[in-house]
Amino acid sequence: MKNPSTYIMTELKKFVSAIPKIRIRYKYDDDAKIYFIEVVPNDVFRNDRKYILWENKLFKNFVKKFPNQHICFMSDDEPLRLEKLLGIDRIDFEIAGNRFAMQ
After folding, report:
1. I need a labelling partner for 92 at 20 to 30 A (CA). Which of 6, 9, 34, 53 fits?
2. What is the DSSP letter of 68?
3. Nearest to 45 by CA among 10, 70, 82, 9
């Protein structure tokens, strides 16, 4: 079985290929023991049916494969930006589709 980080990054790459207008950043917080996934733009995160179905599927599969791990999805709406929430100094993984354009 893959480790949680490898599993998440593999799934993120597949999804960005399917929806090229998004950017996804991922960070594991060792203190909180949570895998954070930030999806932008916010409109996709909140309203895109394809994204919502994908997130639900990834969440369910992740919990099934890694029952002792935690995963959290967020977007760029304040105050839950990845940097502000965690005060992070690095992103563990970032991928943007070829049609992503930050507003």
Report:
1. 53
2. T
3. 82
**Structure tokens that stand for 26 in this block:** 């991922």
Provide the whole-model pTM: 0.83
Rounded CA-CA distance 25/37 in Å is 6
Query: Residue 101 falls within a domain, yes or no?
Result: no
Return the pLDDT at 30: 85
SS3 4: helix
Q: Could you tell me what percent of the chain has a pLDDT over 90?
A: 56
**What domain range includes position 14?**
4-96
CATH at 75: 3.30.300
d(CA 34, CA 44): 23
* Other beta carbons less than 10 A from residue 87's beta carbon: 8
